[in-house]
Amino acid sequence: MTTTTSTMHEIFERAHRVTPGGVNSPVRAFGSVGGDPRFIASARGPYVTDVEGREYVDLVMSWGPALLGHAAPEVVAAVQEAAARGLSFGAPTVAEVELAEAVRARVPAAEKVRFVSTGTEATMTAVRLARGATGRDLVVKFAGCYHGHVDALLADAGSGVATFGLPGSAGVTAASAAETIVVPYNDLAALEAVFAERGDDIAAVIAEASPANMGVVPPRPGFNAAIRRLTTEHRALFILDEVLTGFRVGPAGWWGLDGVARDGGVSATGSEAYTPDLFAFGKVVGGGMPLAGLGGRAALMDLLSPSGPVYQAGTLSGNPLATAAGLATLRLADDAVYARVDEAARVIGDAVGAALDAEGVPHRVQRAGNLFSVMFGETAARDGVHSYADAQAQDTFRHPPFFHAMLDAGVALPPSVFEAWFLSAAHDDAAVNRILEALPAAAQAAAAA
Ligand code: PMP
């Protein structure tokens, strides 16, 4: 099953001597699938190539940013041009203004935007801003949602915290944990109960726009709108975390599909319209460079320093190389790009389902726009997956053999069952066909588990 080779193994051992766990972000370590991670030498379009020269069709895509495919020539050129003019100034640039304008053009409710370097900083700042704006301390989050490694938001988090089966993190103070209330996802009655009890102390509810860090678990139609209603009633803020979904599932992210009314009054997902107070952005907005941001109503955003009392800063915030990559990416990400990503996701999602059906493996392909993931098990197949408890109850043991069979066939899936599969506009017929060809053997491996 394992594809370990000596070169890769040696590098991983060398990495272990100088880096905790041999990696700089936990899920990269193949902890839940076993074997040695691929050390990547280069990437282009839908492919990554490891240091041994082996090429894979990539379904990780840097965990989201590479919407256009890896190393899109126009994006690389924009970064090279920016690099030639200087790597970092610690002073404002026109490109930062242009990128904020580009974000606002797509998400008008993000009237003002502050750029930071990581999604973690974006959500951390959003929480601080919410506390500063309301004078309240409590934050409500949902089990299985991941918002970066912010102390207050690590309780019952998704992504690596879910992959490694952790309740949270060591090193988070009891005081910090006590200021976070965790509610089951998609459970409106539980959220209402929390507001009935503590409503006057709640600064904000933060939710992934459509969760994808416990696998893909979309909100029930109207769930985000209900969060909006409750938070408004209790004068708490609603922070919509679009770090993963923003500019990926559509031009205006999940909110564009879920929160914006079309003709007939309801949104594309069948929800009533809603507008959060704050958005967190990341990944695609930085085009593969370290850039993220938060946006919202002007009056609220103006509480940030230097115009307001809520402090926030960053040496590399709005970095010129990162803003160049983000701007080039957003300029290129037109309707045709989203149509291509949507279509590739539909074809591959359907094919995964058919391959697993053919082998009698009970499963559910969970979808949210062009994001999808596979949940194994009878219950998932019958009822779908609506919460972190549902996601944890799946047959996780089927994922490692499925993952390794795909890897052996030259397809790199996310190395955790709690992550979404990411596609790009560069996944052309050749790349998609390689995935389709790999699926039957992987489904057999999952069936044999
Ligand atoms: N929010 C969500 C929804 C995410 O998916 C992530 C990262 N996967 C983050 C926040 C944190 O972003 P970063 O890793 O850039 O800190």
Describe this structure in words.
The chain is of the alpha/beta class and 449 residues long. It has two domains: 6-67 and 336-448, Aspartate Aminotransferase, domain 1; 73-332, Aspartate Aminotransferase, domain 2 (3-Layer(aba) Sandwich), CATH 3.40.640. The protein is 39% helix and 14% strand. It contains 16 helices and 13 strands. Strands 4-10-9-8-7-5-6 form a seven-stranded mixed sheet, with helices on both faces. It has a four-stranded mixed sheet with strand order 1-2-3-13. Strands 11-12 form a two-stranded antiparallel sheet. Strand 1 and strand 2 (47-50) form a beta hairpin. Helix 2 packs antiparallel against helix 11 (320-332), helix 7 packs parallel to helix 8 (223-233) and helix 15 crosses helix 16 (429-448). The longest helix is centred in the last third of the chain and has 24 residues, at 335-358. It is globular. The protein starts with 5 loop residues before the first helix and ends with a helix. The relative contact order is 0.17. The model has no long low-confidence stretch (mean pLDDT 96). The structure holds 4'-deoxy-4'-aminopyridoxal-5'-phosphate (PMP). Residues 63, 118-120, 123, 146-148, 159, 208, 213, 241, 243-244, 282, 292 line the site of 4'-deoxy-4'-aminopyridoxal-5'-phosphate.
Provide the fold topology.
Layout: H1 6-18, E1 40-44, E2 47-50, E3 55-58, H2 73-85, H3 94-106, E4 112-116, H4 119-134, E5 138-142, H5 160-163, H6 174-178, E6 180-183, H7 188-198, E7 202-208, H8 223-233, E8 237-242, H9 253-258, E9 278-281, E10 292-296, H10 298-301, H11 320-332, H12 335-358, E11 363-368, E12 371-376, H13 378-383, H14 388-392, H15 399-408, E13 411-412, H16 429-448
Helix pairs in contact: 2-11, 3-11, 7-8, 12-16, 15-16
The chain binds 4'-deoxy-4'-aminopyridoxal-5'-phosphate.
Residues 63, 118-120, 123, 146-148, 159, 208, 213, 241, 243-244, 282, 292 line the site of 4'-deoxy-4'-aminopyridoxal-5'-phosphate.
